[in-house]
């Protein structure tokens, strides 16, 4: 009798192991977040996940652990950009070797909390099968909705476990949603107008579900041909861009690349002088709007509004422009800080709203992590780090108080909330456009993060029918159109650490 070599037999046995298969599922689900061109493998991973969850006869415990493993790996891939924060040079404290352990802990545990969504999907499907007496066919049909609810569950679990003084219980953290994978397909991207990334996630699951329901044909070739057709059509079409508008807002964005260590000291004369030069240069073009990166602090948020405005008018000869700045605001008697806009509008009242969604990566310290580090003997580091990242969710975040000519303001990382723009539109019936001030000074060229954020903003622009324009610190801003295209604004001036770019946004 023919026998396989011992090494090959071990490999075959390993491939047949349930947990090895779940691990493979996780890699298939996550690889598209590492390389967008491989997004189709994510759909293969969804199909494999559903096969293991609904078709195999193994213990429920094995399925639950396997599902958690697969989704954790998916999020480990999606959040690999955490490592672009190394070395951490944006804190006012030197962390030394512990920073590697801290980044790993944030990366792994964040993925683990989000991975609970996979356990939820399999757990609910097992309950429906047992107590609801649903057939596999009905479970497959329900799976798109169940999958989306699992992604939401994972996001909520993440917000619960990373709860702290600067957080809320919310499903806003949407990294790793499979809808972003199909968003890489130019035609599927347009479907986001029906429900944003939530609808796209349903589409992503519905495609392999369809294949699994018709797999009774037992023929591989047609399935491969259809898959190749789906993949290929994504390159045939690109989002259209309307350039035939008769009236437009003239918008200038200022991107900055100031040294991170100098940014720590906001009394640094060099940074402040260069920022003033950038604003003065931008005003020479007589724009309708100027947008600065998040936390630029052109205006002193902690002085009186009238004083800060009068100083600006005196220095720049009372310009009639809408300028969007933001910075740290310390409310008397309240521990921590708010991230707040200062929207200058000529002789009109100043507009101020506060950031409503914060992320634990660099805006607040989760209570669980604070207590754990303190128990491990790093309480002194926690105390010093907390001085730099002690932001709180704004108590004055309602943007209905802003004037009609003021853009909606989507702060940095609020774009990861799929409802970020929609919440603004619920507060204001119409806006000229959405201004998106951002700062990526935490990171060092996070290409993977930028790719995912681009897709998130494309989807939000399409879903809400809004132009979104970003202005970045340590990242180049861009214009996202309601058709789904991304336009790089034209550079018109530059200086030491700053670049001025112009865009024309159609009046709606």
Q: What does this entry look like structurally?
A:
- The chain has 17 helices and twelve strands.
- By secondary structure, it is an alpha/beta fold.
- Strands 5-4-3-2-1-12-11 form a seven-stranded mixed β-sheet, with helices on one face. It has a five-stranded mixed β-sheet with strand order 6-7-8-9-10.
Determine Rg (CA atoms, Å). 25 Å
Strand content: 5-15%
Shape: globular
User: What is the number of helices?
Assistant: 17
State the major sheet: 7 strands, mixed
Number of strands: 12
What is the CA-CA span between the terminal residues? 77 Å
List the helices and strands in order. HHHHHHHHHHEHHEHEEEHHEHEHEEEEE
pLDDT below 50 for ≥5 consecutive residues: which ranges?
Answer: none
User: Please, what is the average pLDDT?
Assistant: 89
Class based on secondary structure composition and strand pairing:
alpha/beta
Helix content percent band: 40-55%
The main sheet orders its strands as 5-4-3-2-1-12-11
In terms of topology, how is this protein built?
Layout: H1 6-16, H2 18-34, H3 39-54, H4 60-78, H5 98-131, H6 136-161, H7 179-182, H8 186-190, H9 196-213, H10 220-233, E1 248-256, H11 260-264, H12 269-283, E2 289-291, H13 305-316, E3 322-329, E4 338-345, E5 348-351, H14 367-375, H15 379-388, E6 408-409, H16 420-427, E7 434-439, H17 447-464, E8 468-473, E9 479-480, E10 486-487, E11 490-495, E12 498-506
Parallel strand pairs: 1-2, 2-3, 6-7, 7-8
Antiparallel strand pairs: 1-12, 3-4, 4-5, 8-9, 9-10, 11-12
Helix pairs in contact: 2-3, 2-4, 3-9, 4-5, 5-6, 6-9
């Amino acid at each position: 009798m023919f026998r396989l070599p011992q090494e090959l037999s071990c490999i075959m046995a390993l491939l047949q192991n349930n947990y090895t298969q779940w691990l493979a599922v996780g890699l298939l689900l996550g690889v598209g977040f590492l390389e967008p061109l491989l997004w189709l493998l994510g759909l293969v991973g969804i199909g494999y996940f559903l096969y293991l969850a609904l078709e195999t006869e193994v213990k429920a415990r094995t399925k639950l652990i396997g599902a958690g493993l697969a989704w954790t790996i998916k999020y480990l891939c999606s959040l690999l950009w955490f490592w672009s924060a190394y070395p951490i040079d944006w804190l006012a404290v030197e962390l030394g070797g512990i920073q590697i352990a801290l980044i790993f802990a944030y990366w792994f545990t964040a993925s683990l909390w989000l991975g609970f969504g996979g356990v939820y999907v399999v757990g609910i499907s097992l309950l429906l099968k047992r107590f609801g007496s649903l057939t596999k066919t009905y479970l497959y049909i329900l799976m798109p909705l169940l999958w989306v609810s699992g992604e939401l569950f994972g996001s909520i679990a993440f917000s619960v476990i990373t709860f702290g003084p600067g957080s809320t219980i919310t499903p806003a953290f949407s990294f790793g949603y499979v809808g972003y994978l199909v968003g890489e397909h130019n035609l599927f991207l347009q479907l986001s107008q029906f429900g944003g990334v939530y609808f796209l996630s349903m589409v992503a699951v519905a495609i392999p579900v369809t294949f699994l329901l018709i797999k009774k044909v037992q023929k591989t070739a047609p399935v491969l041909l259809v898959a190749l057709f789906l993949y290929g059509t994504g390159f045939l079409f690109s989002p259209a861009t309307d350039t035939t508008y008769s009236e437009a807002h003239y918008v200038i964005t200022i991107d900055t690349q100031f040294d991170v260590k100098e940014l720590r000291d906001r009394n640094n004369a060099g940074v402040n002088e260069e920022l003033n030069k950038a604003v003065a240069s931008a005003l020479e073009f007589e724009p309708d709007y100027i947008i600065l990166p998040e936390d630029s602090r052109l205006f002193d948020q902690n002085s009186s509004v009238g004083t800060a405005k009068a100083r600006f008018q005196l220095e720049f000869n009372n310009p009639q422009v809408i300028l969007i700045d933001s910075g740290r605001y310390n409310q008397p008697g309240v521990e921590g800080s708010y991230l707040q806009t200062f929207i200058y509008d000529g002789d009109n009242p100043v507009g101020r709203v506060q950031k409503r969604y914060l992320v634990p990566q660099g805006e607040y310290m989760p209570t669980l992590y604070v207590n754990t580090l303190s128990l491990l003997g790093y309480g002194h580091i926690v105390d010093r780090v907390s001085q730099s990242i002690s932001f709180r969710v704004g108590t004055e975040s309602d943007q209905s108080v802003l004037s009609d000519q003021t853009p909606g303001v989507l702060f940095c990382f609020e774009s990861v909330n799929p409802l970020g723009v929609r919440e603004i539109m619920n507060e204001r019936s119409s806006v000229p456009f959405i201004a998106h001030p951002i700062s990526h000074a935490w990171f060092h060229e996070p290409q993977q993060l930028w790719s995912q954020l681009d897709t998130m903003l494309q989807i939000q622009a399409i879903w809400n029918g809004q132009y979104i324009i970003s202005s970045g610190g340590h990242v180049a801003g861009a214009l996202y159109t309601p058709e789904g295209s991304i336009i790089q604004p034209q550079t018109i001036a530059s200086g030491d650490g700053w670049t001025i770019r112009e865009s024309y946004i159609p009046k709606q």
